[in-house]
Amino acid sequence: MNIVYNAINVLLLYVVFRLFLFKKVDSILHQRRNEIDHATDDAKKKQKEAEELKESYAKKLQDADKECEELISKSKKDGYDEYDRIVNDAKAKAEQIIVEAKHNAQLEAQREKDAYVSELTDLVVHAANKIAVSKHDEETDKELYNKFIFEAIEKSE
After folding, report:
1. DSSP characters for 108-128?
2. How far apart are CA 22 and CA 26, in angstroms?
3. What is the Cα–Cα distance from 123 to 46, expressed in whole angstroms?
4. d(CA 77, CA 22)
5. Taking CA atoms, which of 53, 59, 82, 136 is between 20 and 30 Å from 42?
């Protein structure tokens, strides 16, 4: 009989433990398991979102690199175009200055030529006046001719 009482006590203890202790422990364990599963799912979702963001930023960075290269090439092209424009403007101005300088030189040469002709004409007229006023013999003509040449040389120097 003692064995039967012990067996009944063990069964009663099992049922009491099962009802009061194991159910609460099982519910707590089940609750913990759910929390862990939920935290794991959240972590996986966040990791997936982070990978998507990483891919998105990598793509944006790649696009930014392409855009940067395009801007650099456009800036270089604009710089070369501006350089060519400045050089062409400078060449055109230089050609214009050369043309003007040649024209001015021609005008100056013509003025000097006209001045020389005028001076020579004055000398010839002056010499003719002296010849007309003086007596005409061969020696006097030679002196006047030599005097005229020396005066012309002195004025041209």
Report:
1. HHHHHHHHHHHHHHHHHHHHH
2. 6
3. 112
4. 81
5. 59
